[in-house]
Write a structure and sequence with these properties.
By secondary structure, the protein is of the alpha/beta class. Helices cover 31% and strands 22% of the residues. The protein has a single domain, classed as Metallo-dependent phosphatases (Purple Acid Phosphatase, chain A, domain 2, 4-Layer Sandwich). It contains eight helices and twelve strands. The longest helix is centred in the middle third of the chain and has 13 residues. The structure holds zinc ion.
Length: 248
């Protein structure tokens, strides 16, 4: 089975469509690791698309805030403005869909899917401080997570060697394939579709092949100017659309 892993789409329809074009024909089942909405200009269109495409969708912190399950108290002022804008823009049907999204982990065949971490859906796995206890703990051998908007992840092998998965800056398309060893533990982040923060503005996603036992990481340029123009027109804060072209 080939699983398409999408995360942190953040209402960015141009990035989502470009990723789906590149992924077309390459996967059997699509999964979304949360944060469908927040920040970007097309929340309804993105919810519609993800809802029809993905067999499994778990909620992210922005999904919770935008549908009113959570207040946006921990968000910075720009993110909070975008949250308020998104809540107003979402149709009642889509608000209801977001409210009903399950919290991770979602247990899949051979791995688990979470937004933040298996222990806490809002936790950021940014480095060894958060990754090592999880890789050494009782969690699944393979955990797919999002939330940080940093494509890659972390591994711990049998000999106790810890490594970060580094994504090369080129080429466009398939940038890296990581073979999955039976005796190594993995935290895999497919990257953010709609708002990458690893200093690479290209939209990111991954495909997990459970038979060949490998993860493929993809990066693709998309029409970022179009997304930015829509955000400007919608009155979303300037720093939120500037950051898209910077990838941070
Ligand atoms: Zn996010």
């Amino acid at each position: 089975m080939r699983f398409l892993l999408l995360s942190d789409v953040h209402s960015n329809l141009e990035a989502l469509y470009t990723c789906l074009e590149l992924a077309a024909g390459k996967y059997d089942k699509a999964i979304c690791l949360g944060d469908l909405v927040g920040y970007g200009p097309n929340p309804n269109e993105v919810v519609d698309k993800i809802r029809n495409l993905c067999k499994v969708v778990i909620r992210g912190n922005h999904d919770k805030a935008c549908c009113g399950i959570d207040d946006a108290a921990e968000f910075n002022p720009y993110a909070r403005m975008a949250t308020d804008w998104t809540r107003q823009a979402l149709t009642p049907k889509h608000l209801e869909y977001l409210r009903a999204l399950p919290m991770g982990p979602a247990v899949m065949e051979g791995f688990i899917a979470v937004h933040g971490s298996p222990k806490d859906e809002d936790e950021y796995i940014l480095g060894p401080g958060q990754a090592l206890p999880l890789l050494r703990g009782p969690e699944a051998q393979l955990v797919c997570f999002g939330h940080t908007h940093l494509q890659g992840g972390f591994t711990l092998n049998e000999a106790g060697r810890f490594q970060s998965i580094r994504i090369p800056a080129t080429p466009d398309g398939l940038t890296l394939t990581v073979p999955l060893e039976d005796t190594t533990r993995y935290l895999i982040n497919p990257g953010s579709v709609g708002q990458p923060r690893d200093h690479d503005w290209r939209a990111g996603f991954a495909i997990l092949d459970s038979e060949r036992k490998e993860v493929e990481y993809y990066r693709t340029p998309y029409n970022v100017a179009q997304t930015q123009a829509k955000m400007e027109k919608a009155g979303l804060p300037l720093p939120l659309y500037r950051r898209l072209e910077l990838g941070r």
